[in-house]
Write a structure and sequence with these properties.
It contains 12 helices and 14 strands. By secondary structure, it is an alpha/beta fold.
């Protein structure tokens, strides 16, 4: 079975991990700081703080904007459910909005219409490897938080995605294009925001800031793999792009449909989403018989989890009911790519 989300791990990654083990420094240390330097360079943000999980990265970001009970956070329905979990735990109101009809993102106008006097932030999630200019969103909300897990270092014009945000978040789970096994990071170009993050994690030199600490800094053993992963990321992205273009050619021959960047968007091939007209279960079963795992991007969109009226989220519903992720990985052998491509050419 060719699985949908397989980590891209090479021997070089293991050599870095071994070097970390031999140094006998497993906690946050030399490799973690080097990882943060490389992440900052990659993402285009002056400051970065690496932590032990995607969950922790989101958690300390929410803590940094000083949320209070009943504050509101605007978030698109097509977003990871982990955000909903953390917001509800903090007794913050998630204001869930639809995506725009001609985009994979909510429009700036949709975000502006959702703003109230209790709005604290908007979370912009760059799904599927697609990236959008964040400038029109930033001027509408007190804090702009961006999830760049799928697009670290992607350019929109002359700017890197997320470089204008108050905080950026990235996760490094085994399924992502940068993996440390588990892990995450938070980025900012604001020194004040960075100092707040350091204080929250107990990583501040200021002895006066001792009020709240979340022990979550990344261990060096995980960061070591991240350093290696970053060094090969551009090469792996080029391989993914080449594979994605083979898939796209197959879909053209079959009159199929793949998601493509819209106006003012860019993309990485961190995922390869396709849209189908047949019931998703039938397509999933078709690929399964061929030894290929295809999956939904999310088990459920956030509006379904919250039991909100489906008619208020028509664009998200359409995307949810028609979209699947096809395996794409820079480690694939040619025979794997051609096998997937062949099946893409006949499913429609």
């Amino acid at each position: 079975m060719i699985t949908a989300q397989t980590p891209s791990i090479k021997r070089k990654d293991l050599e870095y991990v071994l070097e970390s083990l031999m140094s006998e420094q497993l906690e946050y240390g030399t490799f973690a700081k080097k990882f943060e330097e490389k992440l900052s360079e990659r993402v285009g943000c002056r400051y970065s703080l690496s932590v032990n999980s995607y969950y922790s990265a989101i958690d300390i970001t929410l803590e940094a904007i000083n949320l209070e009970e009943n504050d509101e956070i605007i978030i698109p329905s097509f977003a990871p459910a982990i955000y909903l979990d953390l917001l509800l735990r903090r007794k913050v109101k998630p204001v869930i909005i639809d995506i725009d009809e001609n985009s994979y993102f909510p429009s700036p106008e949709q975000v502006g219409n959702a703003v109230t006097d209790k709005t604290k932030a908007f979370i912009l999630v760059h799904n599927f490897g697609f990236a959008i200019d964040d400038t029109p969103y930033k001027e509408r909300v007190p804090f702009l938080i961006e999830d760049i897990t799928k697009v670290p270092g992607c350019f929109i014009g002359s700017k890197k995605v997320g470089s204008q945000a108050d905080f950026c978040i990235a996760g490094f789970q085994s399924s992502e294009i940068i993996t440390t096994g588990e892990g995450g990071a938070v980025f900012s170009n604001s020194k004040r925001n960075y100092q707040t993050l350091k204080a929250i994690t107990g990583n501040s030199q200021d002895e006066l800031i001792q009020n709240y600490k979340i022990s979550c800094l990344i261990p060096d053993i995980n960061a070591a793999m991240g350093v290696s992963q970053l060094s090969s990321l551009d090469h792996r992205l080029e391989l993914r792009k080449a594979i994605g273009q083979i898939y796209e050619n197959s879909l053209i021959k079959s009159k199929g449909s793949c998601l493509v960047p819209r106006e003012n968007e860019n993309r990485y091939y961190s995922d390869f989403p396709i849209q189908v007209k047949s019931p998703l279960k039938d397509i999933i079963d078709f690929f399964k018989r061929a030894g290929i795992e295809v999956i939904r991007p999310f088990t459920k969109p956030l509006h379904q989890i919250m039991g909100l009226p489906l008619e208020n989220f028509s664009n998200t519903e359409h995307l949810y009911l028609s979209t699947l992720l096809v395996p794409i990985n820079s480690n694939f052998m040619k025979k794997d790519v051609m096998h997937i491509s062949k099946n893409l050419s006949v499913i429609f």
